[in-house]
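Hi L.,

You mentioned the student needs an example of a multi-chain input paired with its predicted structure. This one should do, with 175 residues in total across all chains.
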Amino acid sequence: MAVLSLRLYPDPLLKSPSVEVPRITGAIEQHIRDMIESMHAFPRCVGLAAPQVGIPLRIAVVDVSKHPKTKHHHGLIVLVNPQLLEGSGERLVREGCASVPDYTGNVQRFEKVVISAWNERGRSLTLRAEGFEAVALQHELDHLNGLLFLDRLAPQDLFPRKRYGRFRRPHPGSQ
Ligand code: ZN
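Structure written out for the whole complex:
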């Protein structure tokens, strides 16, 4: 296991669509373990996509269970080759991203989503999520398509992250 180094905006890998995983191999399993460890090591990180740690593959991990905004969640989620099947409802959400540490922004997202993917063993799964977890999932799927939250907002909806002393404000989580 290893904590991987984080790619920061404007690293070109963050703007590139990632490649499908053809099958689960030992190397893919290792990537997933390292991504989980990295997500839990980065402060307030509730999701991580493989290109954020230099891996140009369609893999994401999400865990919003410890975030104060969370009401409903599935705990740790591993998604390989995820696809958004359905989205419904709308909400404007203040988002942050570990790869864009100095800003947050108001982004329009679906309130509820249905996502299909493989899990870490290559089994197909269908996930229904809502609220903060649904937003985190949409944010990570964007990363796999080379999109950042910066690409989804108007300039007036971008805000410098406020800092209080040595600590950043606790909301929103970084994804
Ligand atoms: Zn992000």
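You could point out the following to them. The CA atoms of residues 59 and 80 lie 5 Å apart. The chain has one domain: 12-160.

Best wishes,
N.
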